[in-house]
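User: structure tokens for this one?
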Amino acid sequence: MKVLAIDGGGIRGLIPALVLAEIERRCDRPMSQLVDLVAGTSTGAIIACALTRPEPLAAERIARIYVEEGPDIFHRSLLKRITSVEGYLDERYDSEGLLTSLRRHLGDTRLAEARTELLITAYDLELRNAKLLGRRDDFSMVEAAHASSAAPSYFEPARVGDLTLVDGGVFATNPAMCAYAQVAGDLELLVSLGCGEHTRRLRYEEVRDWGRLEWVRPVLDVVFDGTADAVDLQLGNLLGAAYVRLQTPLDEANDDLDDVSEENLAALTREAERLIAAHDDELDRLCARLSG
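Assistant:
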């Protein structure tokens, strides 16, 4: 099996969307015809659903959605900023902007209708366990993508039936290991796409006296980044040439999940372009393997 796995990362999902657009351009085929399973966490889950719906969205179109609708998804009114105390007493964003975008592009499509196998990560707060959603689960794509991207402190948990679900990034920011476990023994190629690697340092002098309040926001980034790096290390050692990881340090763009400023969206685009240029030959070899 050929597998695609896409990390979580909020608005930074623009980076893997642009990389996927380049792969589709070089292969002259949609991703749903190039792989057998698409796994995604959070923003990666949204991309996974869009790529595999019955009439797949081109990755180039998905990238434009990040630019065009990201500011509406991560929008806070002055009232919301005040009542949430900048996200310390309530979620930072109302979910309606996210849900409106998901409904517009995924409609009423069910997971069972996906053109490839799907693996969408989410975490059940009440049962306290990880959930891996796929075509056998009675979820709509909107429900699955919403649940997987309901990052704690950013959005309120998603209520789906009697389940209370949050972002799968709390256990699998990089869902590649979950995908590998699902197809182990039948794997030809696993392509893992990152959303940009954190480069902002948390220095000892800064963090030494932090308490719960100061750690509320940074700890989520540390957990998300650390679990993604751990999966990359493990799969690189386990799979060798069968594993391809495309990731880039964020030398210019902001690593925040929710920086949808025009300047940062342009910087994220440049980060993706540099990643593509730096891996030009590797992308050619990858596309040959995907098309073969």
